[in-house]
Inverse folding.
């Protein structure tokens, strides 16, 4: 054991490592389906080699590296190096940063923390140059994770707080949730349980709002660990099982490893070693699958505790040798010192760059002062000329505005006049149409009176001399609305009711002239008896025509013909 990692500290350290890394590890495709055979891997390499080497190419290769980070780590490194090489050739800063941060995460998962920190600091620098503040926040989170994994709590907290500040400034909910989660872990380690629980719950609330299953699983896993440390094992198992479901749905091996291992520890504390062993085996199998020394170290340490508690000291001793060898390769004081120096050097470089920038700004201020003094006289002269031209321009603009206002008033008056004339014409046509209708109604009433008188005379068997003149009979047997009257009527009708005739014939081209006339009179809300009188036909015939019209228009039995016709022609009025 190294002096900086006492036995009582190491279990929580590696537990925290896992939870931190789940937070910032990208979501890969289903890891059970992404393992590449050598042949398929070779085919993919050949394919990308043939593509055009532009920024889109770099983005695609970076995406492949990101997808294989947890499932095919060596393939991930290969694609990251390919992307970085091409991004540098085309001076694509954003592509360089993505490639470098993927490489940093690769080295972190392998346990090479100095190399991981080197790449992550470089990614932070590139993202700052590129102006991508969201990725700056994620870079600070990644750097904090590596410091935590190496045992540097102060540097870890410093970087996590920087990440939180960036995400809050951007309003980036996902980043804020990550920061709350990470700060919760640190506060839990420091024994500040109420503060830790508050951060965990805030993180879970935001993640549920965002709906990311992997992230929800992370927070549930954290809460399970929290209640396990409080010896509330039933509640811990409840949270672990829920987290396990989310990690399975999102196919995230790191989340599964952490949850399997944590559940095994809880069941062991709960005096159920059989169930605990099953989860230890599942966790260890996954660490071998993703080739991660960090996660394997965690599972081995917990598994050793299991064998000690179950009395299998031989197995515990055998496994302890593997654990010590692996741990010593991951954690040592020299690496911690090297990484602290690297962080300090990066921050010093940042400050020197800020100082250099301030010096350049001061030089620019001096140049501006000299230029201001030399150009003051010229500015006054130019100012007078500018004032003169502005006055001329203002005068021209006022004249133009007055002319435009006058023109607008004239146009408005003309438009209003046209509207008034159109309204007057429509009103006149409506009155004329009403006049025609009243004329026809009066004519119809006179005819009806004559019919009654004639019938009375016939019934009293009057002589032919006592009967009205023959022109009365001709009037009775003729069409009350003549063709000339129909033409005048139709012209007025169109002026008032628009495209009614066109519309009804579009509905049914086979309409007869009698049916069209009856439809027009129905549009004017005339009754059956009035229509019969005007057209010189029997009311029974009008009813038959109405039935034929309704049938041709395909009107439902429960709908009135008059209501249907009333709605026709309204949208096409002439104005």
């Amino acid at each position: 054991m190294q002096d900086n990692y006492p036995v009582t500290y190491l279990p929580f350290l590696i537990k925290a490592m896992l939870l931190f890394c789940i937070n910032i590890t990208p979501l890969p495709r289903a890891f059970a389906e992404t393992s590449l055979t050598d042949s398929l891997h070779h085919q993919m390499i050949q394919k990308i080699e043939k593509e055009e080497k532009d920024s889109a190419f770099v983005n695609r290769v970076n995406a492949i590296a990101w997808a294989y980070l947890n499932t095919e780590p060596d393939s991930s490194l290969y694609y990251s190096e390919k992307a970085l090489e091409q991004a540098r050739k085309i001076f694509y800063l954003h592509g360089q940063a993505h490639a470098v941060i993927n490489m940093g995460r690769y080295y972190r998962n392998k346990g090479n923390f100095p190399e991981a920190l080197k790449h992550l600091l470089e990614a932070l620098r590139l993202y700052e140059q590129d102006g991508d503040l969201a990725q700056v926040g994620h870079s600070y989170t990644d750097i904090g994770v590596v410091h935590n994994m190496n045992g540097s709590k102060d540097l870890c907290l410093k970087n996590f707080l920087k990440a939180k500040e960036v995400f809050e400034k951007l309003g980036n909910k996902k980043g804020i949730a990550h920061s709350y989660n990470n700060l919760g872990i640190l506060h839990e380690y420091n024994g500040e349980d109420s503060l830790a629980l508050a951060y965990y719950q805030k993180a879970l609330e935001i993640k549920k709002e965002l709906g990311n299953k992997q992230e929800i699983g992370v927070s549930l896993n954290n809460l399970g660990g929290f209640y396990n440390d409080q010896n509330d094992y039933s509640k811990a198992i409840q949270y672990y099982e829920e987290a396990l479901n989310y990690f399975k749905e999102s196919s995230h091996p790191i989340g599964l490893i952490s949850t399997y291992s944590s559940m095994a520890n809880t069941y062991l504390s709960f005096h159920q070693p059989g169930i605990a062993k099953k989860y230890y085996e599942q966790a260890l199998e996954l660490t071998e699958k993703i080739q991660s020394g960090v996660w394997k170290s965690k599972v081995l340490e917990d598994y050793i505790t299991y064998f000690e508690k179950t009395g299998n000291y031989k197995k515990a001793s055998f496994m302890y040798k593997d654990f010590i060898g692996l741990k010593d390769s991951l954690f040592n004081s020299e690496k911690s010192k090297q990484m602290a120096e690297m962080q300090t050097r990066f921050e010093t470089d940042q400050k020197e760059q800020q100082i250099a920038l301030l010096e350049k700004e001061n030089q620019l201020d001096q140049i501006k002062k000299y230029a201001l003094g030399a150009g003051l006289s010229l500015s006054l002269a130019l100012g007078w000329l500018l004032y003169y031209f502005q006055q001329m321009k203002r005068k021209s603009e006022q004249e133009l505005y007055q002319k435009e206002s006058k023109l607008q008033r004239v146009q408005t008056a003309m438009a209003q006049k046209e509207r008034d004339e159109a309204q007057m014409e429509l009103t006149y046509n409506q009155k004329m149409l009403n006049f025609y209708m009243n004329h026809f109604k009066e004519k119809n009433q006179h005819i009806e009176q004559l019919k009654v008188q004639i019938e009375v005379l016939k019934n009293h068997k009057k002589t032919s001399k006592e009967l009205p003149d023959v022109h009365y009979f001709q009037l009775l047997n003729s069409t009350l609305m003549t063709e000339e009257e129909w033409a005048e009527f139709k012209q007025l009708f169109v002026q008032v009711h628009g495209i009614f005739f066109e519309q009804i014939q579009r509905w049914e081209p086979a309409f007869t002239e009698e049916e069209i006339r009856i439809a027009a009179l129905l549009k004017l809300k005339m009754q059956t008896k009035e229509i019969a009188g005007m057209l010189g036909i029997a009311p029974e015939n009008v009813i038959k025509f109405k039935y034929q019209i309704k049938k041709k228009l395909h009107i439902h039995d429960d709908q009135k013909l008059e209501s249907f016709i009333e709605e026709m022609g309204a949208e096409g009025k002439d104005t």
